[in-house]
Structure of D-xylose 1-dehydrogenase (NADP(+), D-xylono-1,5-lactone-forming):
Amino acid sequence: MSSNIPTCRWGIISTGMISSWFVADLILDRPDAKVKHIIQSIGASSVQKAQAFAFRHCPKSSPTINGSYEEVYADPNVDCVYIGTPISFHKKNCLDAIAAGKNVLCEKAFTINAQEAKEVFEAAQKKSVYVHEAMWLRHRPMIAKLRQLLYEDNVIGDVFRMSCDFFDRIDIPNLPETSRYKHPKLGAGTLLDIGIYPLTWAFLTLDPNPPDNAERPNVLAAQVHQHGVEVTSSVLVQYPSSGRQGVITSTHMSNKPSNPICRVYGTKGYVDVTGEKPSHPHFFTVYKSKEDHQTFDQGQKYEFLHVGQGFIFEADNTALDIAAGRKESAIMPWKETMRVMELMDEIRKQGGTEYPQDHE
Ligand SMILES: NC(=O)c1ccc[n+]([C@@H]2O[C@H](COP(=O)([O-])OP(=O)(O)OC[C@H]3O[C@@H](n4cnc5c(N)ncnc54)[C@H](OP(=O)(O)O)[C@@H]3O)[C@@H](O)[C@H]2O)c1
């Protein structure tokens, strides 16, 4: 590995599932890596949790072990703080890290609502630090290729519709009280947890504009609630300038896979995206209409290199942004996070989902 590539020393906040996935990808052995990632510091609600996490997930590193998040924010050797806590804690975690002058990569959904996101970005601007919502899907090389095929090469003619569903069966009544899926005050509900992926697929496949100049679609939404939380969302997304529509759904009531995970319809064909879930796409296939306009060709499959689970693309881009002195990601700029949060606020308003934080 070349020694003059940028290095990013990460401080990991919390030791749950997503932090373990993220760290697993950071420490992958990559001979052709364009960035060197170092797990510098781990912060958890207890020293024991931080220690167990380091032992299990980064056995070849020797990160600083901390029984609080504050010690990570205060560590002068940390270049970027990764926040992997439930959504309801993101605002506080971001504000605390920013107050300590740290750059931040914070898991999706960025915050509970747009007002919280605004507060975080205002603080980041004042402190002149980098902040980035970790919507890792947008960083996958597959996305740039798909958008090029749809809107530069027009391989399926005029795009007019897409559909995407995210399912994940959650047994809410039997979860512990501390679970992020259980209570609105912890940000429970499908939209912010998984519905944000179909929504992102809609933005990426229906709007050719770059994320800092994205068109705001209209949304028509319905949501279902059980056990006091939103368990199913259905949203119709429509772009005023083109009439393009997205039919997007998410549910915590089923584990039945939907394949393809996303389908994009054009006047001269369609694209099927295949993978485990909308957060984990593997490849896509372009099917072109035959001359009869009724049938389709056998399809051209576009495959992509798999590196771990795929977090490395956003991690590399974050490290490169910070090394270049940028304060925002061009792939997920602040303006785009605000737009996504505002649209999710609107969907929740129509669907009747409120969080206690909406009234603070
Ligand atoms: N990018 C993706 O594909 C993806 C996938 C899953 C989740 N996520 C996002 O990642 C975030 C965390 O998800 P997760 O499934 O990893 O969460 P999790 O395992 O339930 O919790 C992560 C950590 O947050 C802290 N925590 C959890 N519940 C808490 C509570 N009630 N009170 C105080 N602290 C609590 C704990 O930190 P300590 O370790 O410090 O005790 C816990 O280890 C969410 O924002 C979610 O949307 C992203």
Q: What stands out?
A: The pocket of NAP is lined by residues 14-18, 44-45, 49, 84-87, 107-108, 136, 178, 180, 186, 193, 279 (CB under 6 Å). The longest helix spans residues 334-351. The longest strand covers residues 229-238. The chain has nine helices and 14 strands.
